[in-house]
Amino acid sequence: MVASGKPGKTGSIVEVRRGRKVLDIAVQDRERMRELAREFEQPLTAVQMASMDELTLLTNLHGFMVLAQLWLDACEQLEKPVSLLYFDLEYFRQINETYGRVEGDKALKTFADVLRVAFRESDVVGRVGGDEFAVLLTGSTAVEEAGIRARLQEMLNERIATAHRGYDICFSIEQMEFDPVVHKTVEGLMTAVDFARHQGAVRF
Predict the structure, then answer these.
(1) Which residues contact 123 (CB under 8 A, 6 or more apart)?
(2) pLDDT tens-digit profile of 87-129?
(3) Domain contains 45
(4) Which domain holds residue 15?
(5) Which residues participate in catalysis according to the annotation?
(6) Number of domains comprising the chain
């Protein structure tokens, strides 16, 4: 009885140790990402100030490409995955035509603020077109689109209700995980996402 019980006990100890090891690795990964954020603070700030979209205070397309490539290179060195989320505001033209340009600008700023709050400091958020936004998710594989959509829509609805606006801010999401062999760079990833958007299909 004693002999048969020992392997089970040993197995449990091994499982606990493995669990702790996985947890330790996850903690180390998060700490490393924080360290990188601190290391990148000055160059990130410089790029953001030089390439800031004046309306939304996010980085513009140029700034996004520079910052995203910087983080992509870091993630490749750490062997961490990277994913890109591409957002396109729907019915934005109707908002401009019905409520005016000023209200359209407010809608853009509201969406930008929600993106800024919703994602981490190690993620790169930018306004890459008139009503188009992109987020580079560092250390992340493809995420659940429905969950992101629901979270962002809830935040948007709260802000719209508070401001008593007569319209909704709707958006589409395109998602793609970075493949170093296929995409090679952030520019390659953005090109692939743009192609997928126009084809009406997204690669995961």
Answers:
(1) 135, 136, 137, 138
(2) 999 989 999 999 999 999 999 999 999 999 999 888 999 999 9
(3) no
(4) 1-39
(5) 131
(6) 2
